[in-house]
Design a protein that fits this description.
alpha/beta; Archaeosine Trna-guanine Transglycosylase, Chain: A, domain 4; Transcription Regulator spoIIAA; Rossmann fold; 3 domains; five-stranded mixed β-sheet; 12 helices; 30% helix; binds S-adenosyl-L-homocysteine
Length: 398
């Protein structure tokens, strides 16, 4: 079914048409002719994108209220965006994950990188958590949910409206159960020999960070017999992997009591409670106190929240990363390992590495960089969209 009667929006002559032709998925407000008709389009409308000469470039979703005014959905300017279209995208996404993982626990859709702009879907076996972070996804939620159930066979779909991007798209923060019944207890998830408890409906930041899976595995390789400190641990991402890797003792530090309770439950399910403890503290205060007490660990991991969530916050963010490194380095025994992570896309690998080295240097330590990690393959990178590659994990030997 083609739809040539659909509205069209047009690029200004100065827009970077080549980038769009080569796969750049976003068109910003200043690149478009924003006439009255375009401004009146409902957020999430599906329209045809044309270049300044009116040559069609593809099917886009528009949100006149957002700086990212158009998101490329399909190179075919007549594509019909319905459940069948969503299902085709989901099948492509699923086949990658099925190749790489032997159990259905992964990020199934990583937004633009999987051809579903603004849509994030994490899968926990029979339950999927869907984040519609763009207006078109909210407007097509029924089609997306139907396709998700059909393609994956999940029986429960939860909507998580906590995504940072939703406010920029003019969307609310109301979570919902879209299909089935929400699990009434945290779900155990096995990765790298560890058991993580994922609370999919709890109040604060929920679920699991699947993106660090490969880096957890690398840390597990360093953990045999080691005293381990996992700072900003959440439900124990690195710490429980280190337990599975044979750590002699693991301390998880986080400011969130619910996250630490889940970490402790994971350790208990692994039968490793006797090698595990938690400390509820602000990481900066906690590390300062440990430093004053001359505490020493063979392996310290710091995986803070995004300190530089945007370009304007970059300088402040880099100073925070430097401070983390400066406070953590003294806690690492000679020939021990320090893992420093950043999930801020604004902090590029070179600036982040620089901040870490300044912190380590100010602590009077010298470092070898032995490994650089990124997000796992269920978080594919769209080369045309720098924002899709955000995670950095630097493994230093001090
Ligand atoms: N390392 C985890 C993910 C960490 S997410 C993994 O591999 O799965 C970041 C964590 O930092 C969250 O759990 C949050 O509660 C915690 N956090 C944020 N600010 C903090 C602070 N100032 N002090 C301690 N923990 C903090």
């Amino acid at each position: 079914m083609s739809d040539l009667s659909r509205p069209a929006i047009r690029l200004k002559p100065k827009a970077n048409v080549r980038a769009i032709r080569h796969g750049s998925p976003w068109v910003f407000d200043n690149e478009l002719v924003l006439d009255r008709r375009t401004k009146a389009l409902a957020p999430g409308s599906i329209v045809r994108l044309e270049d300044a000469e009116r040559i069609a470039l593809g099917t886009v979703a528009v949100n006149p209220g957002s700086r990212i005014t158009a998101r490329m959905l399909d190179r075919n300017p007549e594509a019909v965006i319905d459940a069948a279209w969503c299902a085709a995208r989901l099948r492509k996404a699923l086949s990658l994950r099925q190749r790489v993982y032997d159990a259905p626990f992964y990020r199934l859709v990583h937004a633009e990188s999987d051809g579903l702009p603004g849509v994030v879907i994490d899968r926990f076996g029979d339950t999927a958590v869907l984040q519609p972070n763009a207006a078109w996804a909210e407007a097509h939620l029924d089609a997306l949910t139907e396709a998700l159930c059909e393609v994956t066979g999940v029986s429960c779909v939860l909507k998580n409206a906590g995504g940072r991007g939703r406010a920029l798209e003019g969307l609310d923060d109301q979570d919902a159960v879209l299909r089935g019944t929400a699990p009434d207890a945290p779900l155990p998830v096995e990765m790298n020999g560890a058991v993580y408890m994922a609370d999919l409906t709890g109040g604060q930041k929920t679920g699991l960070f699947y993106d660090q899976r490969e880096n957890h595995a690398f840390v597990a390789r360093l953990a045999q017999g080691a005293r381990v400190l996992d700072v900003f641990s959440h439900v124990g991402g690195f710490g429980l992997a280190a337990l599975a890797g044979g750590a002699s003792r693991v301390t998880c530090l986080d400011s969130s009591a619910p996250a630490l309770a889940l970490a402790a439950e994971g350790a208990a399910r692994m039968g490793a409670s006797d090698r595990f403890e938690t400390t509820e503290a602000n990481a900066f205060d906690g590390m300062t106190t440990m430093g004053a007490a001359q505490a020493l660990y063979d392996l310290v991991i710091c995986d803070p929240p995004a300190f530089a969530p945007s370009k304007p916050a970059l300088d402040k963010g880099l100073r925070a990363y430097e401070r983390v490194a400066r406070l953590a380095a003294p806690l690492v025994a000679e020939d021990g390992y320090l893992v420093l992570c950043s999930c801020s896309h604004a902090a590029d690998p070179v600036s982040f590495t620089g901040a870490c080295l300044r912190g380590i240097g100010r602590a009077g330590r010298r470092a070898q960089l032995i490994h650089t990690g990124a997000a796992g393959p269920d978080h594919p990178l769209l080369p045309q969209l720098a924002e899709s590659g955000y995670l950095k994990a630097l493994v230093f030997r001090l």
